[in-house]
Specification:
The structure holds 2 protein chains of 2 kinds. By secondary structure, chain A is an alpha/beta fold. Chain A is built from 15 helices and 9 strands. A 5-stranded parallel β-sheet of chain A has the order 2-5-8-1-9, sandwiched between helices. A two-stranded antiparallel sheet of chain A has the order 3-4. Chain A has a two-stranded antiparallel sheet with strand order 6-7. Chain A is elongated. Chain B is an alpha/beta fold. In chain B, strands 3-2-1-4-5-6 form a 6-stranded mixed β-sheet, with helices on both faces. In chain B, helix 8 packs antiparallel against helix 9, helix 8 packs across helix 11 and helix 9 crosses helix 12. The chains are: A alpha/beta, B alpha/beta. At the A-B interface, helix 3, strand 1, helix 10, strand 9 and helix 12 of A face helix 2, helix 3, helix 11, helix 12 and helix 14 of B. The structure holds adenosine-5'-triphosphate and magnesium ion.
């Protein structure tokens, strides 16, 4: 059965000298070590992270804004003692920003310093010289696969790039090598853990999805959100954290234009701590709702539904 | 029958989730790499390798619960390798052999007779109050034995048994009781605190429902086998739900799916347009421009890429049964309104009103759509759809504004309540417009039955299209731009 081990197979294909060590023992191990770095996961986050390590596959993390997609990659890097390399995507991102670029300025300086007299030989020397690694600016993708220290690669908000750039990412994620015309092929030194995040603004290509494990990160349930608050907001009481998590759950059940995210929950919690509250009443909630909700119409709706006159229970 | 994993993937595909060959292989590899006795790990690993869309998760979950109901998988072989036996047989045996807590089920019936209805209610209450999973499981088991009246071999779906069980449990009372306990005497005045207590109670009752559903499902799997059951509990993906016949729950799913769907469509179309933003070189214009640079054509001029953007005129029936279809369509069309030179929207029942103004300057079309009901003036007589009258009104007031750049989109089931059709109006509009399309949310087989008069209008439309799901709607609207 070991012949089927996907990690071994990949390592062989890439000609790696040794298999990367397994980073996690079990989903539980994932959970505990992430928690040590203040990231509270759940069964599915822990399972998929564990599986990605075993299969040496990238994870595509999707879900609403502010639910801890980016934070997951950071916490994984911290918990395995790896350096996080981040490629922030945006519309118009291209090879020269994602992969590598020649350092023209430095090349020019070198040419001026060298000043060849004009013989063909001298020129070709110089050319060899200025297209050496020394003049190469490595960008996140190239850096991640050529690094010799442990790294985690985060390709953040991949739904923002154009289809062409997506194809480039896909190529790197399946070949783990880069061919640079002036230099030759650069091979991977390791198979890093890779996270891609998406806010789902665009349909990603089937090919990219096939290549990745998929992890949907939704809003946490009350217990997990309470624990997130407790770990991220110093000085807060368990009772208050629990109440905050409950209010946020109730808000998310309303039909709002934009439901509060975990980051907004945390902002709210910090505010209440600064105000010295031990519990939330109607009045505090009314005064601070704008921290959780960004649209006026949402605030109005929440005020009416959650804080309005109470209807007798059926 | 090949194997459990293969059958399971077959079920996912039957439910509409696209699973490729390579994803099938990945899932098998995942099963080899993990501890199969960890059920949650098995579930999450299958989800991560087979499902690549968050909206498809509920369908995956249902299928998983059926196929892997109360099974603990002993080995990879069991999951991946061929069985000679009929797979239904296999599943049944597996279920009986593997189930731990399920074992007591046989005796469950007998044991429950010793428990009175009141005792069961108390057990339920305590289990929910304390959040005790094990007790909740036991209580759900009791409740199903007692109230569901399940009969072996009876081909009814799980919802029938669920309904019978829940009806007997008086969940409203239970919820009320639960929400009272968490309120300390002094607190109960605060509106917010009360609301939180109520939402918490509701969440716990939902837990109970899920537990009862699971119990019924497991028994049904025992009775009928996974494959047969999966087929009868299969639910469509949100994008394949029938808009006309969605129940409340499904309608909520549709509403949720609509916003991301239209946003993605808008992004896709905008990118398509940008990529094609250059047409062929416009020679005359380029030469004209080159005069200012001494005849050197520095500034190349291009022809517009494609025919100018069309103007869209939507005329939508918003009476009862087709109202949601109209709302979804209006939302979608306005979400991509930048792809059109102009979008004008008209709604009717037996009177007609223009609602374009509601969409002006709002970012989120759902806001405007939500205001239509309150603000549009669409009832002229008795409030039953009258297509003929609505078309006449439209023609009278707006026909002269229809040009060869206008594409007209009529939305409705053409159920005219036996009023006059006035199809000649559509004939005249077709003559004036670039195209007339009719989107009908009813299945084709219903057209022209009863008071539906589709075929009286059809000859004057460029196309009459059956449009019952978001998937069909998106495909059509995407083509318009
Ligand atoms: N599970 C969690 N444990 C601890 N903190 C969390 C968790 N989830 C979210 N957070 C907190 O919420 C903040 C927002 O999370 P993050 O930026 O990772 O969200 P995101 O999903 O990447 O959002 P976006 O889609 O907007 O990029 C983080 O700074 C982190 O502090
Ligand atoms: Mg992020």
């Amino acid at each position: 059965m070991s012949a089927l081990d996907p990690r071994e197979e990949l390592a062989q294909r890439l000609g790696l000298l040794h298999l990367p060590p397994l980073r996690f023992d079990s989903p539980r191990d994932v959970r505990e070590r992430l928690a040590q770095h203040d990231y509270l996961s759940d069964d599915s986050i822990a399972s998929v992270t564990f599986l990605a390590d075993r299969l040496a596959k990238p994870i595509l993390v999707e879900g609403p804004a502010g639910t801890g997609k980016t934070a997951l990659a950071k916490a994984v890097a911290d918990s395995i003692g790896a350096r996080l390399i981040r490629l922030q995507c945006y519309e118009g991102l291209d090879e020269s920003k994602a992969l590598y670029e020649w350092n023209y300025r430095k090349q020019l300086l070198r040419i001026q310093a060298g000043r060849p007299e004009g013989s063909a030989e001298e020129w070709s020397h110089l050319e060899e010289d200025i297209f050496a690694e020394e003049f190469l600016l490595t960008r996140p993708l190239l850096e991640a696969i050529t690094a010799t220290d442990p790294v985690v690669l985060l390709i953040d908000e991949v739904d923002r790039v154009e289809l062409e750039t997506e194809a480039l990412l896909l190529e790197i994620l399946s070949e783990y090598q880069v061919s640079i015309p002036e230099l030759g092929t650069v091979k991977a030194q390791q198979i890093p853990m890779v996270f891609l995040t998406s806010n789902n603004t665009r349909e990603l290509s089937e090919a990219l999805k096939r290549r990745c494990l998929y992890l949907y990160v939704g809003y946490p349930d009350v217990e997990r959100e309470r624990d997130i608050i407790l770990s991220r907001v110093p000085g807060i009481s368990t009772a208050l954290a629990e109440q905050i998590a409950q209010v946020v759950r109730s808000l998310r059940m309303l039909d709002l234009k934009k439901a509060p995210s975990v980051s907004e929950t945390l902002d709210w919690a910090r505010t209440l701590v600064v105000l010295g509250r031990e519990e939330i009443g109607e009045a505090d909630a009314t005064a601070t709702l704008h921290i959780l909700l960004k649209y006026q119409s949402d605030i109005e709706r929440a005020t009416k539904e959650l804080l309005g006159r109470s209807k007798p229970v059926a | 029958m090949l194997n459990l994993l293969g059958d399971f993937i077959g079920e996912l595909r039957a439910a509409g989730i696209p699973v490729s060959m390579s994803e099938h292989v990945d899932s098998a590899r995942a099963m080899e790499a993990i501890d199969l006795s960890d059920r949650s790990l098995v579930k999450n690993s299958l989800a991560a390798t087979l499902v690549k869309d968050g909206d498809h998760m509920p369908v995956f979950n249902t299928a998983f619960e059926v196929f892997f109901a109360n099974r603990s998988l002993a080995s990879v072989e069991e999951m991946l390798n061929a069985e000679d036996e009929d797979s239904d047989e296999m599943t049944r045996e597996g279920a009986a052999g593997a189930s731990g807590p399920g074992q007591s089920r046989g005796e469950g019936g007998g044991a429950s007779s010793s428990m009175s209805a009141q005792e069961l209610a108390d057990l339920l209450f305590r289990a929910l109050r304390d959040g005790n999973r094990e007790a909740l499981r036991q209580a759900a088991n009791e409740a199903v034995t007692r109230y569901a009246g399940m009969e072996p071999g009876r081909p009814v779906g799980g919802t029938y048994y669920l309904y019978r069980t829940l009806r007997n449990l008086e969940l409203d009372k239970l919820e009320e009781r639960l929400s009272q306990v968490s309120l300390a005497p002094g607190e109960s005045e605060d509106v917010l605190v009360q609301r939180l207590a109520r939402d918490e109670a509701r969440a716990r009752v939902e837990m109970l429902k899920a537990e009862i559903e699971r119990e019924i499902r497991e028994r049904l799997v025992d009775d009928r086998g996974a494959q047969a059951l999966a087929k009868s509990v299969r639910k469509p993906l949100p994008e394949d739900l029938d808009v006309m016949h969605a129940n409340r729950d499904e309608m909520a799913q549709l509403e949720r799916a609509l916003r991301p769907l239209s946003r993605k469509l808008a992004v896709r179309l905008a990118r398509r347009r940008r990529r094609r933003h250059r047409g062929p070189i416009d020679l005359r214009h380029t030469v004209r421009r080159s005069l200012s640079t001494g005849g050197v054509p520095i500034d190349l001029r291009f022809k517009p890429p494609r025919p100018a953007k069309p103007e869209i005129i939507v005329i939508a029936d918003i009476s009862g049964s087709v109202a949601s279809f109209a709302r979804f369509t209006l939302h979608l069309v306005h979400a991509i309104s930048s792809q059109f030179s102009k979008v004008r929207s008209f709604v009717f029942v037996d009177g007609l009103d223009e609602v374009s103004r509601l969409f002006e300057g709002v970012d989120d079309p759902s806001e405007a759509v939500a205001r239509i009901n309150a603000e549009a003036d669409v009832i002229a007589f008795d409030g039953h759809s009258d297509y003929g009258r609505a078309f006449l009104t439209f023609h009278e007031r707006f026909a002269d504004q229809i040009t060869k750049r206008s594409t007209i989109l009529i939305l409705g089931d053409a159920r005219n309540n036996y009023h006059q059709a006035h199809a000649e109006v559509i004939a005249d509009l077709k003559y004036r417009a670039r195209a007339v399309y009719w989107l009908n949310p009813e299945p084709t087989s219903y057209w022209d039955s009863g008071d539906s008069i589709v075929s009286q209008y059809a000859p004057y439309c460029d196309k009459v299209i059956e449009c019952r799901t978001l998937r069909q709607l998106e495909a059509f609207v995407g083509e318009l731009a």
